[in-house]
Amino acid sequence: MKIIAVWFAFILLTVGNSFGQIPKIIEKNGRHALLVDGKPFLMLGGQAHNSSGWPGMMPQVWQAVEAMHMNTLEVPVYWEQIEAQPGHFDFSMINTLLVQARVHKVHLVLLWFATWKNGSNHYMPEWMKRDAAKYPNITGKNGQPVDSPSPMVKATLEADIKAFTAVMQYLKGADAQHTVIMVQVENESGAWGSVRDYSASAQKLFEGNVPLELLNPGVLKSLNVPVVTGGTWQQVFGDRADEYFQAWYVARFIGQVAAAGKAVYPLPLYVNAALRDPLTNPMATNYESGGPTDNVIPIWKVAAPAIDLVAPDIYLPGSERVLKVIDLYDRHDNALFVPEAALIPDNAKYLYEVIARGGIGFSPFGIDDNGAGATKAEIAEKLAPFAQEYEMAAPMMRELAEWGFEGKIKAVVEHDDHAEQTIDLGAWQAVISFGTGRGGEAARPNAQPTGKLMIVKLDDNKFIITGTHCHVTFRPVGKNLGKAWEYLKVEEGRYENGSFKLLRILNGDETDWGGPRFGAATTVLQATLITR
Ligand code: DGJ
Question: Residue 311 belongs to a domain with what CATH number?
């Protein structure tokens, strides 16, 4: 009896210790992990459409969540709904989301659609929209009105702080079990249609001196401008002055909203970016100016320290461009997270890239029907490329998160030119070719570049390998260089609850002649190699 009581107390203590812990992002040797219940967690996510965070729309969202094997739903919460009357807050929809997410056993990332939604003020409550004098938009270069809120207006800032703080206070009280693991502050902030605010009051600030924090030599170097000790925006930043000025004020505004919310309930907070082309360094007239685009990340880091990470929304086409974006947002000072990606088959492969880099999550956008009248079959077809990856990853999610954090995972995604790629694994080099063809058939190239492969190094000679539309073989290198080799065993199965569950041993046609091969369905292998 006594032993049982002591055991029970021990369980309570350990369970209590980890389950009570608030989610947080940690960093070690430049790699990051999102801790949920005290352990690294990988968000297998998906985002609901913009207007789906309403009780009548949620059933379709949950259907998609189930179909995709997601563990995290990103869903907007709307300022216009929460504070329809000034100072009167309605958290009933957040409560509905909490209750339903727990029933579906998934976590939530709430998206605070407030002062900025895709650069505009469209989610501000009516009472604010009706008072444009108090809550103004910015003014364009030629005095034209621009559909984007000014980041320099105290009244707007104070109103947003008040509402966001109320949301975080509510969550603190209503979510002891931490169903909500992260909050996005605003949505794709910045301005379309004008690089900055040219109103008289903004112009005065623009003609003033650059704030001291930005004159830090490290910051200036990372912005690729000469190190100086003072000057106006124009003097310090030259032809980038307008954009950097806008980025500073947008980031400062959002940083203050985030800091106020965090002070009451310190959940991880992030902002998402409408990207610019990362390969051509275009001017900000070509994209949303002032948001956390790759070139102004250093400004955001200084101006908004309460924001834990800045994150790319991936809608750009082409493997070179997308891989560059992922690289630019995977920084020592920034955990990699893809909060939005177009729901197209080509994008599923980037999940592997994100996991291998120790990223904390991935989330295609628009998982539910959205009232467009799509049939169940059409929705299922769109979700399928992600669903099969999440189904594979879900039972090994904690291990993937831990391995990614420890740097034990490597991945390749098929480039647009379909070229062969290699992965260095110490004493072995994996050689990956893209295409299919099994058991003596000729290899067929992939019609679309959707191939991918991920390898976890369990020890020097033992690997978990998963992929689609490719085949992999190995070369002995390093201490194995010049030795003959063979597979000791290649097992196909699933990795779940910390161990490999065998379906079959692959051999013969399935591993000879440059195999094993991965087809359209995601398979998980455990391969052990030996030298002779
Ligand atoms: C990016 C935004 O962040 C989303 O809210 C949505 O508007 C998509 N673009 C496009 O549908």
Answer: 3.20.20.80
Whether residue 515 contacts residue 471, with contact meaning beta carbons closer than 8 Å, is answered with yes
- Rounded Cα distance, 350 and 329, in Å: 14
Alpha carbon distance 338, 340 (integer Å): 6
Is the backbone peptide bond immediately before 151 cis, with ω within 30 degrees of 0? no
| 349 belongs to a structural domain | yes
User: Is pLDDT at 10 greater than 50 in this prediction?
Assistant: no
Neighbours of 208 (CB within 10 A): 11
Phi and psi torsions of 209, nearest 5°: -85, 150
Q: How many CB atoms lie within 10 A of CB 451?
A: 25
Distance separating alpha carbons of residues 151 and 153, to the nearest angstrom: 6
CA distance 385 to 394: 14
Farthest-apart Cα atoms in the chain, separation: 82
pTM confidence score: 0.95
Is the minimum distance from the CB of 118 to ligand 1 under 6 angstroms? yes
Interval between CA 288 and ligand 1 midpoint (Å) = 13
Q: How close is the Cα of 49 to the center of ligand 1, in Å?
A: 8
* 334's tokens: 């920034």
**Containing structural domain, residue 330:** 43-208+240-396
CA dist., res. 492 & res. 465, Å (int): 9
Distance in angstroms (rounded) separating the CA atoms of residues 94 and 170: 9
* Residue 523 CB–ligand 1 contact under 6 Å: no
Cβ contact 121:167 at 8 Å: no
Confidence of residue 9 (pLDDT cuts 50, 70, 90): very low
pLDDT tens for each residue of 37-76: 999 999 999 999 999 999 999 999 999 999 999 999 999 9
**Burial class of residue 280 (count of CB atoms within 10 Å of its CB; 0-12, 13-18, 19+):** exposed
Where does 106-240 have alpha helices with state H?
A: 126-129, 154-174, 200-207, 217-222, 233-237
Whether 217 maps to a domain, the answer reads no
| Any atom of ligand 1 within 6 Å of the Cβ of 368 | no
Same-domain check for residues 344 and 440: no
d(CA 87, CA 79): 12
Would the CB of 113 count as within 6 Å of ligand 1? no
Q: Which residue, chain included where needed, has tokens 């073989």?
A: 473
Q: Which residue, judged by its Cα, is nearest atom 8 of ligand 1?
A: 365
